[in-house]
Structures are given as C-alpha cells and as structure tokens.
Amino acid sequence: MNKNFKLIIGGIYIICFGLLIFAVFSYLDLKDLTDLKFIKNNTIHLLDYKNENLVLTVILFFTFSIIWILLLGFGAPLAIISGFIFGKWYGTIISIVSLTTGCTLLYIFANFYFKDIIEQHLEKKISKFKYLFKKREFFYFMIFRLTGGGGIPFAIQNVIPVLFNMKTKNYFFASLYGLAPMLFIINSLGSGIEKLVAKNEGFSYLMIITDPGIYIPIISFLFILIISYFIKRKLFTNN
Questions:
Q1: Dihedral through CA 105, CA 106, CA 109, CA 115, nearest 10?
Q2: The whole model's pTM is what?
Q3: What is the Cβ-side half-sphere exposure of residue 203, based on CA atoms within 13 angstroms?
Q4: FRET label pair with 161: which of 82, 107, 135, 178, CA 20 to 30 Å apart?
Q5: Rg of the chain on CA atoms, in Å
Q6: Is the model more confident about 119 or about 78?
Q7: Residue 141 has pLDDT above 70, yes or no
C-alpha cells in the first residue's frame, strides 16, 4: 500500500484520538469524580434519560464504545459504565457485543493499513505465541483473551492476530467468549457502584469496601486473575 496514504490515515487517526481526549476532559473535571453530589445528580439525569430513551441510549453507547476502542484500545472503563447505566446483566451483554465489535473493526483496520508496522515492532516480542495461534487460532486466542493477554496491554492484544492472519470470524467469537467472564465481573462492579450511589447521601471508604456489590466483584476479579495465571503458565509458558 502507498506509504503516503498510510501516513494520511495515521494522521487522521491521531487527530481523531486527540479530539476524543479533548472532548472527554473538556466535559469532565477530575475533582467532580470525587464529588458525591455531582455524581448522584448526574446519575439521576442519566438513568432518567436511559429509561425514557432506552433504544437510543443503547445505540449511543454501542457507537461510542466502538469509537473508543478504535481510538484508545482499552475497554475496562466502558464495562464499568455499561454496568452503571444498564445493570449487571444487560450491561454485560451490551458491553461484550460492543467491545468485541470495536476490537474486530480495529483488527480489520490494523490488518489493512498497518500490518507491516505491527510486524516490525511486535513479531519478535510475541514469537512464543505465534506458533500456538497458528496451530489452533480460535482456542488459543480465546484463552489469551480470558487470561488478560499474558499481561500485554489490551490495545496491543487487539492487533496481535495481524501477525498470523487470523480469520475475522474466529477473532470475533474468540474475543466474544474470552472477554465475557471479565466483562461480567466489571459490569457487576459498575452496577454495584450505581446502587451504592443511589441509596446513600454520602459514603466512606469503609462503606465502599464492605458493600457486597463492590467487594464481591473485586474478589471475583482477583480469583479470575489467579486462575488466569495458572492457565497462562500451563498453555503458554511451557510451549
């Protein structure tokens, strides 16, 4: 592909990334995130809007999630937000589908425009995974997702399959199944935070850590990390 065209696409990507960051931080003041009154008031408005415009809210969240993944590459904040807005179960479904779609589009985009750059910078670093993925790409990439990518940042996980030409269908469903357990836990945490905000005028750190809607997802998260560590050692380290 023409090098100048790739540079143009890369420039557009960086500009869009900058605009997203500017928009987020123009709207949010970090000190507001610790102001319970601010959070509570905006939560009420947000949930009222969602209840009155459910389909539109889902579409907006879905669209924003795809754009977020395409530009920023990581998904944990989106899973917390989806649990906060839509609840544990619906939020999990919405975030799994939207994040998986965003990841898949990013993979297609990267495979089409930046394959040579990815190969240049990542091929040696993940050479130990490449043989496994080529042998059984669906299974190993699903486990790779489930175990958090062996400590590899989520944004890089999304484009690693470019190195072994993974089928788009396998990429989508391996990501869908592999991300589901962790996204469920993070959505549960988001739902727990929403319930904590809704039922309290103020809270302390003790109240937060002793609330079942908070500590159960956190314990589950740690449990998944421990299980993932042993799975990773069994399937990846010894190969």
A1: -140
A2: 0.75
A3: 22
A4: 82
A5: 19
A6: 78
A7: yes
